[in-house]
Amino acid sequence: MIFKDEWPCAIAKDIEKTVVEPTEPTLQYIQRILNNSHAWQLLMKGLGYPEIVSGSFYSYYPSEKLLRESTSLFEKSSALLGGMAVFNNMCLKTMYYYLQQNIKEVNKGYTSDELIERIGVKADFVPIIHRWLHVLNSNSYIRNEEKEYYFEKKMHYSELEKIWVDGKNVWENANLGT
To answer: What count of Cα atoms within 13 Å lies in the side-chain half-sphere of residue 62?
Structure first.
């Protein structure tokens, strides 16, 4: 009874008193609990208790595998945000390219119906084109005045291709995966 209940509880309380307990987010709380478990395991090992076989019911996940290096996490997060911004720009310019291919004049207003008719979009996909027009307008790629959209320049395929090559390089240089 003493070795199974009271003594482990007393030691656990002592270990917990040595750890600062501010009000903390869940992930920090979980990390602290894992660190306490690891400290408990080291203490028991030091007192001569046998080690629990890995994979048994009582095995634990080593906390050192869960520790995160905050600087690398910040750098990875920043690289990911930068990569997403580049990817977003690539998508917007790609849609701009395909929509402007069917216009005859730049700086001439076209209604969404005219653009959709020129592109030859199936009826099921018309709402998607409307959303793209809205997104392109809200990101200042095109202008919308009195229900007409204005494309201010013609983009050539070589420009679009360069954007995609540059975007791919950004992702590869930041090690963001494929």
So the answer is: 4
